[in-house]
């Protein structure tokens, strides 16, 4: 019946399309329009300047640093989070004593609110009372200002974000591993294949679609991750940890430079525009393979 009356199909999905348009696309269009206006705390009235805001942002030395930080942050967190999550899933997929308890405990970092996790790591990185420096001093070393030194701040935030996010990848990969054909694994064992050979010849090929989707999904989520960096460093020191979300927040809500904040938002949307179609492409390819 629906094929004969396509207007009825559009009638049913119209409420959902309206909600998506109001909550997602209207703010996005508003952001693009805002990027052509100049505003400041002293002069809050928007003034149309065309591409002048883009020229100012691209000409600022901080822009290149923020782009580089965003790339390093996203690649570092995604790679380590997926690697650690996959290894944890392999371990939790084995028949071990206390398996249910371990599966529950591994979720603790994930269920913590991002702000709480960031505060926890901020205490651990404290140069005077932090657990990490206390451990280094007990070994005969010296304390390191992890979050106050530009050479270590970004790496420190990446480690904290990996700890917070790897349980998500663990859950995804654990579900995928439980669908791997046990008969193929048993046949490989009979043929004398070792654990490493079974991993690369059977397990990984069986879950490669899930790995690809999770890589893209975690990249999108990580690129937009705000809580951890803002609570730990607020983008400092000297822009060493500023990424697009923190810079947008600082410009828009800290300095009331909404035009520049909108410009950074437009650039971040364009960068994410590469990942989002890739995510849907992998999903569509997976559905074609299953069919």
UniProtKB/TrEMBL annotation:
<dbReference type="Pfam" id="PF00528">
    <property type="entry name" value="BPD_transp_1"/>
</dbReference>
<keyword id="KW-0472">Membrane</keyword>
<dbReference type="InterPro" id="IPR035906">
    <property type="entry name" value="MetI-like_sf"/>
</dbReference>
<keyword id="KW-1133">Transmembrane helix</keyword>
<keyword id="KW-1003">Cell membrane</keyword>
<feature type="transmembrane region" description="Helical">
    <location>
        <begin position="71"/>
        <end position="92"/>
    </location>
</feature>
<feature type="transmembrane region" description="Helical">
    <location>
        <begin position="144"/>
        <end position="163"/>
    </location>
</feature>
<feature type="transmembrane region" description="Helical">
    <location>
        <begin position="206"/>
        <end position="226"/>
    </location>
</feature>
<feature type="domain" description="ABC transmembrane type-1">
    <location>
        <begin position="67"/>
        <end position="282"/>
    </location>
</feature>
<keyword id="KW-0813">Transport</keyword>
<feature type="transmembrane region" description="Helical">
    <location>
        <begin position="7"/>
        <end position="26"/>
    </location>
</feature>
<keyword id="KW-0812">Transmembrane</keyword>
<protein>
    <submittedName>
        <fullName>Sugar ABC transporter permease</fullName>
    </submittedName>
</protein>
<dbReference type="InterPro" id="IPR000515">
    <property type="entry name" value="MetI-like"/>
</dbReference>
<feature type="transmembrane region" description="Helical">
    <location>
        <begin position="104"/>
        <end position="124"/>
    </location>
</feature>
<feature type="transmembrane region" description="Helical">
    <location>
        <begin position="261"/>
        <end position="282"/>
    </location>
</feature>
<comment type="similarity">
    <text>Belongs to the binding-protein-dependent transport system permease family.</text>
</comment>
